Amino acid sequence: QMYKDASRRLYTLCQELDTDDSGLLSLDELKAGYQDNADFADLLKTMDIDDRDLDVVFNMLDRDGSGAVEYQEFVEQLHMMRNHEP
Fold first, then answer.
1. Distance between CA atoms of residues 45 and 53, nearest Å
2. Contact 74, 61 (CB under 8 A)
3. Predicted model pTM
4. 3-state SS string over 30-83?
5. Contact (Cβ atoms closer than 8 angstroms) between residue 28 and residue 52
6. DSSP state, 20?
7. Is the separation of the CB atoms in 37 and 77 below 8 Å?
8. Are 3 and 9 in contact (CB under 8 A)?
9. 36, 39, 67, 85: which one has the fewest Cβ atoms less than 10 Å from its Cβ?
């Protein structure tokens, strides 16, 4: 249940960070969100992700090299990464 709440909140935050309303997040939007949106930063910190991890996480998610990721994919992959760490 805690994951569902966190992922729902993260999805909503992603919508807020999507400054061009593309339905996708760029690395710049993620980094700006981490810097400027305390709720987003706090939520990522609870998942043990800090600003130094954003590049790595983003590059793992952006498999097609488009420079953007869908919110849903971002949320799901963060959850999977979080649950697969030792």
1. 10
2. yes
3. 0.81
4. HHHHHHHCHHHHHHHHHCCCCHHHHHHHHHHHCCCCCCEEEHHHHHHHHHHHHH
5. no
6. T
7. no
8. no
9. 85
Q: Residue 1: pLDDT above 70?
A: no
The amino acid present at 28, given as its one-letter code, is D
- Tens digits of per-residue pLDDT, 21-75? 999 999 999 999 999 999 999 988 887 888 888 998 899 889 889 999 998 888 8
List the structure tokens of 45: 């910190």
- Stated as kind and residue range, the H or E segment containing 24 is strand 24-26
46-73 in b/e form (b: 16+ CB < 10 A) is ebebeeeebeebbeebbeeeeebbebee
The two three-digit tokens of residue 16, written as one number: 């807020």
Residue with tokens 């130094």: 52
Q: Which among 32, 26, 33 has a CA at the least distance from the CA of 12?
A: 33
Tokens, residue 47: 């998942």
